[in-house]
Amino acid sequence: MTTSTTSTSKNRGLLILLEGLDRAGKTTQCQMLCNSLNEANGPGSCRVQKVPDRTTQIGQMINSYLASKTTLPDQSIHLLFSANRWELRQTILDSIYSGQTVILDRYVPSGVAYSLAKGVADMPIDWCIAPERGLPRPDITLFLDIEPEHANIQSTREDFGQERYEVSEFQVRVRACFKEILGDGEKNSGVLDMGKVITIDACKDIKTVAADIWQAVQSQDVESSEIATIT
Ligand code: Z5A
Ligand code: MG
Question: How far does residue 23's CA lie from ligand 2's centre (Å)?
Answer without folding.
Answer: 7
